[in-house]
Every structure is written in structure tokens, then in C-alpha cells.
Amino acid sequence: MARRRRRSYEKKKPVAVTAIWTSVIGLICFLIAISLMLVAAAGIDLGKLPGVTGVMIMLISIITFFNGVHTARESDYEVVTRALGVIMPAVAMTTLILLYFAGILFG
To answer: What was the pLDDT predicted at 30?
Structure first.
């Protein structure tokens, strides 16, 4: 019984630096995906630049997603920061996948 009490009173580290970085990079990828959507909706012709940018951002968001999942497995940190490190790159990947499907269907 005393062992359980000790475990419940142990303080966890509030912020996982890796999770914060993955969430920030995921947010940047999401904002770039939104800007690519706006460029495509406006009909601005930039050649191959949006396609190359989209592929690079997709690769970066996949890498940060797996890095966030790796950080989420560590139990030394609070749950909120670990969850943000997984959710933000996943949202960026979902947005980019929707953008690719919209380009295939309507492009």
C-alpha cells in the first residue's frame, strides 16, 4: 500500500522538449498546407513549387509524427505535451492527404 502512495505522489516532468518541438513543427507543416490550399484555390500558377513543397512538408510531418509517437511512449512526462506531439503532425498529415486527394479529383 505504501508503494502505491509513493507512485501516485511522484511528480512528473511538465514538458517534454521533444514533444514540444514535434508539435511546433507539426503546426508549421499545417500552416504551410493551409497556405498551399489557398494558393491552389486562388489559381496562382507557381509551377512545380507547391508540389515539391507539399511533398517535403509531408515527409517532415511523417518524421515528426513518428518522433512524437516515440516520445508519447515515455511515461516521465505529462500526458498533454505527449499528446500534442502526436496530434499536431497527424493533423498536418491529414490536411496534406486531403489536399492531394482534392488535387487528384478536381485538378
So the answer is: 92
Distance of CA 96 to the CA centre of its chain: 11
CA distance linking residue 77 with residue 27, whole number of Å: 21
Nearest to 50 by CA among 63, 33, 64: 33
pTM: 0.78
Residue 7 lies in a domain: no
Residue 81 and residue 19 in contact, taking contact as beta carbons nearer than 8 Å: yes
Residue 83 CB burial class (10 angstroms; 0-12, 13-18, ≥19)? middle
pLDDT at 103: 82
For the cut 80, the answer to whether the pLDDT of residue 107 exceeds it is no
Say if 10 falls within a structural domain: no
Instruction: Please state the domain count of the chain.
Output: 1
Which residues have a Cβ under 8 Å from the Cβ of 26 and sit 6 or more positions away?
Answer: 61, 64, 65, 68, 85, 87, 88, 89, 90, 91, 92
Q: Are 37 and 100 in contact (CB under 8 A)?
A: no
